[in-house]
Amino acid sequence: xxxxxxxxxxxxxxxxxxxxxxxxxxxxxxxxxxxxxxxxxxxxxxxxxxxxxxxxxxxxxxxxxxxxxxxxxxxxxxxxxxxxxxxxxxxxxxxxxxxxx
Length: 101
Hints:
By secondary structure, the chain is α+β, with helices and mostly antiparallel strands. Helices cover 54% and strands 21% of the residues. Helix 1 crosses helix 3.
C-alpha cells in the first residue's frame, strides 16, 4: 500500500490534488492512503514551504511547486509502482538464491 501525502496550505489545491490522486490510483489498479498535510509546522519539517504544493510518496518527495494533473499523477504512480515491484523482485531473487545455496 502506498503512503501518499499532499503538502500544501491551499485548501482548494489540496482537494483537487486528492481527487486527482484517487483517480490515478484507481486507473493504475493500486492501493494507497492519501493524506492532506496543511499544518505549517508539519510542512516546515518537510522543507517545502517555499515550493508548495508538494507530493510525497512512501517518505520521498516526488513533486514540488506544481499542481499535478491526471496524466502526471498516473505517470508518477506507475513509476513508483514499477520501482517498488523491481525492488521486491530483486529482494525475492536474493532470498531464493540464498535458499538454493
